[in-house]
Amino acid sequence: MKIDLNFSKDIIKEEELDSYEGDIFSIHNCLHSKDEYERMPLGWIDLPERYDGKEIENIKKTAYRLRSNSQAFISIGIGGSYLGSRAAVEMMQSDSPEIYFSGNNFSGTYIQQIVNKVKDKDFSICVISKSGTTLETAIAFRVFRDMLEKRYGKAEAKDRIIAITDKNKGALREIANKEGYETFEIPSNIGGRYSVLTPAALLTMAVAGINIEEVMKGARDAYSSYNDPKLQSNNCYRYSVLRNILYKKGKHIETLINYEPSMEYFGKWWQQLFGESEGKEGKGIFPAVLQFSTDLHSMGQYLQEGSKNVFETIIKVKNPPEDMNIPCFDDDIERLNYLKDMTFNDISNIAYKGAMKAHEEGGTPVISLEIPAIEEQCFGHMVYFMEKACAVSGYLLGVNPFDQPGVELYKKNMHKLLDR
Ligand code: PA5
After folding, report:
1. Ligand 1 pocket by Cβ (under 6 Å)
2. Does pLDDT of 283 surpass 90?
3. Which of 212, 236, 268 is the endpoint of a domain?
């Protein structure tokens, strides 16, 4: 597949992009060098071509078992151990079991609501934490582990709990070993927000009936498409450079815009990826997420006439999975029968063109990324595209896109306040 990239030519000239050719060439060589691979958590960069087919088989087998004995499945995790799988499930789940996400906040109401939803159903859980010590995840795990053990007894509960964590370290690994849970590993050289194509997200996807082999196929396709050091022909690198050019022109906010509501969580995953990777040392683009046309009736005002520090990146789906015609009425009081030959998606396309033109005229630059469809291969391809674009953006900005000292500080302060 191919991601088409277009951008506001009145605001950014091709020559500006070309001036980054040398920088991109060096960053490409650095990211793909053995030294950098050993120094940085770059395990995701070649994952699509070296992933373990046997592990994918095991994930599928476990998912099959959980799908057949569970009416509901709870995926417990936060940040990089949550958003990727939720993005995939929201975009592509087609059948049962019901999937719930927990362990991603401290809301007593939210967790009680999930408890209420599963209390009369057969359910199973997976708990995902690379560090194995994240509090939101750990306390939610206690709630559902307790429920399972009381409902099924310890022995059967054990078969309904899957732990996904580091191979050796952390409290979750310790519990899993002690209790004999089935486990999958998050590789130590892949950070949370870069872990979508690992068991961290693949198990939940497979339980939701998503074809994870196709996801990996899409990622593999992206790996070879964006393994090209030439800026001119590499849309992933072009996207990173465009962001950098706009940042230097004072566009410090990037808003990722989706026209498909099912992609809302893809936006949230993207937001974490870029926000946590770039926002450091007093630098970085602030990533925001909008849903059009819904937010055209609210934030559209700001984009058109507000501060000129924002640019848009639109993800446009060429062939959305469904469509519908607009019904005709004889009396036609609202005078809408002229739309009789159009579908919802036709109108969405027109809204897209209209909003893009208006915002560009208002001085808001637009980058548009077009993907062919909402399906597994496209998802895998887009995940890899964004991961690599994010790493390259971080290097262009001069920050380490793989650490998160700010997040660690929040965790440390909270533990101190809780008197741990
Ligand atoms: O990207 C990251 O590293 C973070 O967002 C983590 O994924 C998040 O804090 C959850 O961490 P863990 O998987 O260790 O529970």
Report:
1. 78-81, 129-131, 134, 137, 191-193, 276, 404, 407
2. yes
3. 212
Averaged confidence pLDDT in the chain: 95
Annotated active-site residue 254? The verdict is no
Token representation of residue 319? 């062939």
Minimum-distance ligand 1 atom for the alpha carbon of 170: 14
Is there a single domain that holds both residue 270 and residue 302? yes
Q: Is position 411 within any domain? A: no
DSSP track, 163-217 = EEE-SS-SHHHHHHHHHT-EEEEPPTTB-GGG-TTSHHHHHHHHHTT--HHHHHH
Task: Note whether 191 and 309 are same-domain residues.
Answer: no
pLDDT in tens, 17-74: 999 999 999 999 999 999 999 999 999 999 999 998 999 999 999 999 999 999 999 9
Q: Which residue CA neighbors atom 9 of ligand 1 most closely?
A: 79
Band (420; pLDDT cuts 50, 70, 90): low
> Does any domain span residue 40?
no
Residues 22, 84 within the same domain: no
Query: What ipTM did this prediction achieve?
Result: 0.97
CA of 78 to the centre of ligand 1 (A): 6
- Same domain membership, residue 154 and residue 194: yes
pLDDT digit string (tens) for 128-153? Answer: 999 998 999 999 999 999 999 999 99
Q: Is residue 109 part of a domain?
A: yes
- What is the domain-level CATH number for residue 360? 3.40.50.10490
User: Where in the sequence is the domain holding 265, given as residue range(s)?
Assistant: 4-32+227-405
Nearest residue to 194 (alpha-carbon basis) of 39, 80, 34, 52: 80
